[in-house]
């Protein structure tokens, strides 16, 4: 946790100097079991012009599991078992503010409730994260549509979520 904290606050502690952040992130990824980035963040970190060209960047740095959030296109899970695409639920978008935070909240909520992070749990966590992100964009503002667990369950039961598709 200290590594994650220091990565996210490094620029602020150094007076806004961001030159050393890529190296700090590289060291952090090597220590992490799971790395979650958005497609845009992955391009910024790797220097690639498209996320697909950089999808193995964090794995190559030593991170066992990479989750790439793709906005309305869902998320990609990369593990030693392969690549798995999780489509996002289709909703009417009002405001995308907070969607990424909602995704991370849903992911961490699900992962925090288990003792073992196997493929089935990761799949459930990403499906829940996609649903939280989708719910967040259905109202204006970052906090307005963030779901409670019962609201998430209702949403999940009323939206048919496609199973993850193996990419490779």
UniProtKB/TrEMBL annotation:
UniProt keyword list: Kinase, Transferase
Taxonomic superkingdom: Bacteria
A GO MF term: ribokinase activity
Name of the protein: Aminoimidazole riboside kinase
Residues in Carbohydrate kinase PfkB domain copies: 24-147
GO CC field: cytosol
InterPro entries: Carboh/pur_kinase_PfkB_CS (IPR002173), PfkB_dom (IPR011611), Ribokinase-like (IPR029056)
Annotated EC: 2.7.1.15
């Amino acid at each position: 946790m200290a590594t994650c904290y220091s990565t996210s606050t490094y620029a602020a502690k150094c007076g806004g100097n961001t030159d050393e952040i890529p190296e700090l992130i590289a060291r952090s990824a090597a220590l992490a079991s799971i790395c979650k980035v958005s497609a845009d963040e992955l391009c910024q970190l790797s220097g690639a012009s498209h996320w697909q060209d950089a999808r193995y960047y964090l794995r190559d740095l030593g991170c066992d599991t990479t989750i790439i959030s793709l906005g309305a296109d869902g998320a990609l899970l990369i593990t030693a078992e392969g690549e798995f695409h999780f489509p996002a639920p289709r909703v009417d978008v009002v405001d995308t503010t907070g969607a990424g935070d909602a995704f991370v909240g849903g992911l961490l909520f699900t992962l925090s409730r288990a003792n073992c992070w196997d493929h089935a749990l990761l799949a459930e966590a990403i499906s829940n994260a996609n649903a939280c992100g989708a719910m967040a964009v259905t109202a204006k503002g970052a906090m307005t549509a963030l779901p409670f667990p019962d609201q998430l369950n209702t949403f999940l039961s009323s939206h048919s979520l496609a199973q993850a598709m193996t990419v490779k």
